[in-house]
């Protein structure tokens, strides 16, 4: 039973800590990375369970409880895990730490990875580049934290959350206006010109194409499907009653929809805009590079595994908007699914001009 639970939480841990695959003392760094990944997954799955089981008015408290559980696991791991400095042997099998940035998978070599943890609080570093979020304390060691989204040209997480909240408020207002316009069409006996197909309104077009690696956002968005379709579903029926002169019945259907399906959607809009910032899964990956030791901040870690590396990388074929392609070292796919992965050139994250002002010297960073 216990093994089944662990396997569910992190299949990678079982695969790569199998005695036939890995010798603990000779592969200490990999062991610690997998333990870190395992603990992150415990935290995320704890959040998922609380998210599914808790009452709405208790969710914030339970999210905090889940975080406390993770911290306890982390404290345990500090005492339990072996120091990565005890062995400098490289793992003979190349494993990659795979993570998400804005719905695209990226990877860094596990040989260059020190540890994985939730993003600690960051203190601003004067004269540092904009993509440096600040200095963080990872298990007693202070180091700069790089907002990898900003560094490679993607929209920062806080900006994405801000835009997402604005979008949700606009789409909520759209559906309030949709019902009001339908009511006006009945009252004034005129044609209703807004979208009757739920897939063709602004929210529907966005909803059908939107993808996210965030479990919590995805789970809330799924709940929009039924009430959204029901709202649009009353359009033809209401207009049919109006043309037959049965306006009272048409008004009753609109009023009922406003107090049921629309109210349900409004509740969901409120829920997702209120919680999206708190439900961020941002993770810090500590890297050892030619410039020194620092952390990169990513949306969330997906897994640690081998990948199918493509040796014929066509940089121009990469279709990620605004991406700084000079930071991409290779492309590949996951072993068990045909999802693209872009390998980060970690030694090129910092360039000579980024060190102006000497901000990195106190943290051992050099060009």
What percent of residues adopt helix (DSSP H or I)? 40-55%
CATH class of the domain at 157-275 equals Mainly Alpha
Low-pLDDT sequence parts:
1-26, 74-92
Structural class: alpha+beta
What strand order characterises the main sheet?
A: 8-1-2-11-10-9
Rounded to the nearest angstrom, the radius of gyration is 25 Å
Arithmetic mean of pLDDT:
79
CATH architecture descriptor text of the domain at 157-275 = Up-down Bundle
Largest sheet: 6 strands, mixed
Element string (H = helix, E = strand): HHHHEEEEEHHHHHHHEEEEEE
Distance between the termini: 51 Å
The CATH superfamily of the domain at 157-275 appears as Aspartate receptor, ligand-binding domain
Helical region count? Answer: 11
Tell me what the structure shows.
It is built from 11 helices and 11 strands. α10 packs parallel to α11. β10 and β11 form a beta hairpin. With 367 residues, it is α+β, with helices and mostly antiparallel strands. The radius of gyration is 25 Å and the shape is elongated. 44% of the residues lie in helices and 19% in strands.
């Amino acid at each position: 039973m216990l093994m089944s639970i662990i396997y569910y939480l992190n299949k990678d841990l079982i695969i790569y800590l199998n005695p036939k695959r890995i010798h603990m003392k000779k592969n200490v760094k990999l062991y610690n990375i997998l333990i870190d990944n395992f603990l992150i997954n415990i935290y995320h799955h704890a959040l998922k369970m609380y998210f599914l089981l808790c009452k709405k008015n208790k969710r914030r408290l339970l999210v905090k409880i889940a975080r406390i559980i993770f911290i306890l696991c982390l404290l345990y791991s500090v005492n339990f895990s072996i120091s990565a400095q005890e062995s400098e042997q490289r793992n003979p099998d190349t494993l990659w730490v795979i993570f998400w940035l804005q719905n695209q998978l990226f990877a860094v070599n596990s040989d260059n990875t020190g540890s994985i943890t939730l993003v600690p609080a960051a203190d601003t570093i004067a004269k540092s580049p904009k993509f440096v979020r600040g200095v963080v304390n990872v298990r007693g060691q202070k180091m700069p934290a790089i907002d990898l989204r900003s560094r490679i040209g993607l929209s920062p997480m806080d900006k994405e959350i801000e835009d997402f909240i604005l979008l949700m408020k606009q789409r909520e207002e759209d559906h309030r206006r949709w019902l009001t316009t339908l009511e006006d069409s009945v009252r004034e006996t005129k044609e209703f010109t807004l979208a009757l197909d739920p897939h063709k309104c602004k929210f529907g077009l966005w909803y059908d194409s939107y993808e996210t690696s965030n479990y919590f956002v995805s789970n809330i968005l799924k709940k929009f499907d039924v009430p959204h379709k029901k709202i649009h579903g009353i359009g033809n029926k209401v207009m049919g009653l109006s043309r037959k002169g049965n306006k009272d019945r048409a008004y009753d259907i609109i009023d009922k929809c406003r107090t049921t399906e629309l109210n349900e959607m409004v509740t969901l809009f409120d829920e997702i805009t209120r919680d999206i910032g708190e439900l961020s899964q941002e993770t810090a990956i500590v890297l050892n590079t030619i410039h020194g030791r620092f952390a990169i901040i990513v949306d969330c870690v997906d897994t640690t595994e081998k990948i199918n590396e493509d040796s014929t990388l066509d940089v121009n074929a990469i279709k990620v908007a605004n991406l700084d392609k000079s930071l991409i070292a290779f492309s590949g796919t996951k072993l068990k699914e045909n999802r693209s992965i872009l390998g980060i050139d970690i030694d090129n994250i910092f360039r000579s001009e980024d060190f102006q002002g000497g901000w990195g010297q106190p943290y051992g960073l050099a060009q």
